[in-house]
Design a protein that fits this description.
single chain
């Protein structure tokens, strides 16, 4: 990946991902690779790399190398999460190991693209599947162990890390795609008054996707309860798929300076 370094693209990416002093990506370093280039590396060598080696990539100072490691985890998880393997004990163990690695190194997914390209496909997909993690807890007899999974996401949501917090809401893209609105609604409410603009956008985006994939009526009910307290950015994102007249209605319920 270092051999593909592109200096002009590197400068563009460092501006785009806000790596300057005081910005959310402060100090991050880029090689200057575009995402399709990183995906090609994953495709060509990712499956031959033992998963035990992936943390070496996640600990890299280079943004694109960390992305490569995270995408290798995504690929490995998805191969063990097919319908045929959903309840297979060996596949469950492998998915749990991948999820555990992902969470252990969650701080290395330290920009919005690293979170958004991976959290739905690993963490969000795991929420929908049987797991051996959490055995011995009160819901240990439930193969989905939903109470344990809520504990995991609650821990991310309560973290001091912006990126772990973003994981807890963006992962719900996958659950909404599969018709389950409960995860999105739970963590949208948790993060509704978050101070950071990146979370305002993420919450609104996930609410929009929930409405589109599951139920616009559920979205409207959530807005009836919370629109007056929402940041305007969150509300704008959430109502993007509504008619112009309905968007105007909801926007009048939120103060202009919120």
């Amino acid at each position: 990946m270092e051999s593909l370094r592109n200096e002009s693209q590197r400068r563009i990416l460092m501006r785009f991902f806000k790596t300057g002093p005081g910005q959310y990506g402060e100090g991050d370093e880029f090689l200057g690779l575009k995402v399709p280039q990183t995906r090609e590396v994953v495709k060509s060598v990712g499956r031959s790399l033992p998963l035990a080696e992936v943390p070496r990539l996640l600990l890299s100072p280079w943004h694109e190398v960390r992305l490569c490691g995270l995408l290798i985890l995504v690929d490995a998880f998805e191969r063990q999460a097919t319908r045929r393997l959903a309840a297979d004990p060996s596949a469950i163990r492998q998915r749990d190991a991948i999820l555990t690695t992902y969470l252990r190194y969650a701080e290395r997914a330290n920009n919005w693209d690293l979170v958004d390209l991976t959290a739905p496909k690993i963490l969000g997909h795991w929420l929908l599947l049987p797991t051996h993690l959490g055995e011995g807890l009160p819901d240990g007899a439930d193969p989905l162990r939903l109470a344990y999974k809520r504990e995991v996401l609650d821990g991310l949501a309560a973290s001091d890390s912006l990126w772990r917090q973003r994981m807890s809401i963006v992962c719900t893209w996958k659950t909404s795609q599969q018709g389950d609105a409960s995860w999105c609604l739970r963590y949208a409410e948790v993060h509704l008054r978050h101070p950071h603009d990146l979370m305002h956008k993420a919450v609104g985006w996930m609410l929009r996707e929930m409405g589109k994939r599951v139920s616009m009526d559920l979205l409207r009910e959530f807005l009836r309860q919370h629109a007056s307290a929402m940041p305007r950015t969150t509300l704008r994102y959430a109502i993007e798929k509504m008619s112009a007249a309905e968007r105007r209605h909801w926007m009048t319920l939120t103060p202009a300076n919120s």
